[in-house]
Design a protein that fits this description.
mainly alpha, 3 helices, 0% strand, transmembrane helix, membrane, CCB3/YggT, transmembrane
């Protein structure tokens, strides 16, 4: 039972990572932010990335034009996945 819950959460977190990667690629390639698919991608990932942007801002880290919040979010999600599986095994 617990294994199935952890596996489901792991799949969900993995999907979120891929959505963040997709958003990062879209932000480089696509300039049509009015596209409904792009808008959905941004709407889904923004609540995840915003806290990491605020952390970078509070630490007064000047990243120039590069947004490191996707990288930090993916690292945090991977840490959460490892901790989740660590509780099982």
């Amino acid at each position: 039972m617990i294994y199935n819950v952890v596996r489901s959460l792991d799949i969900l977190l993995n999907l979120v990572v891929w959505l963040i990667i997709g958003r990062s690629i879209v932000s480089i390639v696509v300039r049509d932010y009015g596209n409904p698919l792009v808008r959905i991608l941004y709407d889904v990932t923004e609540p995840i990335l915003m806290p990491f942007r605020k952390i970078i801002e509070r630490l007064n880290i000047d990243t120039g034009m590069i947004d490191f919040s996707p990288l930090l979010a993916i690292l945090a999600i991977n840490l959460a996945r490892r901790l989740l599986w660590g509780m099982i095994f």
